[in-house]
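quick one before i forget lol
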Amino acid sequence: MIIILSILTIALYTLFQLSYNHKKSAYIVGTAETPAVQPGKKENQGDEGKVKPPTVSQDVAGQSGNVSPSPTEKPEGPDLPEREAVGDDFFSDAAFMGNSLMDGFRMFSGLTTCDYYAATSMTVVGADSKYCIKLDNGNQGTLVDGLKQKPYGKIYILLGINEIGYDVKTFIEFYEKMLDDIMSAQPNCDIYIMGLTPVSEAKSSSSDTFNMTRINEYNSALHQLAADKGCYYLDLVSALAGPDGYLPANKTTDGIHFSADVYKTWLAYVKTHYA
């Protein structure tokens, strides 16, 4: 009898332990890789059974691949997307260098927070060899000498229309030599290569050199140079040409140089295309 009671007691105790362990195993122990999930609840459900917002790690619909860069992130270049316009103070550490078109930009754009180094009939060769400006120390110097006087955060270059008769390869070789000189003096500077500006249809059709075919060839080469050198490229044809791809006839007197309001359009483009 005593033996039978002992057997019954052991059996009841075993059944109790099995029942307890079954209830205990109904909750999964969570780790850093596998969060705990209560039975009867799906992942991402709250206590009321409502679905909670997905976590960043879940990346619903691949959203991490479509996040727009923050304003502080620089584009890779050489092309620049249109962005929210900056104010004039953005150019307080900038220098603009170029030919008579750049001098027109100085006079008519309204931008006065930057430095200008420009001269009529300037070329990529003359920029580093022609003494045409007065430097801060009182001496005469080249446009490139002017760029070396102090550190700049941004340098904008517009050259090429006066060299339009050159072989494109020769032009790029001269441009690259000038660019290397500038980059050596300003290693921490963002450099913007401005493409050649458009000419009017009348000018383009009447000239073997000042025509849009030549301008587009030069601009393609400048775009590639910007890519090779880690610079940015500003497409002034798309900024200033009309729907037909030419400078509007009512915006120029000689087919090349601009009326005053075009420089405002040029500035608006520069203000919305930056690194």
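fyi The CA atoms of residues 1 and 7 lie 10 Å apart.
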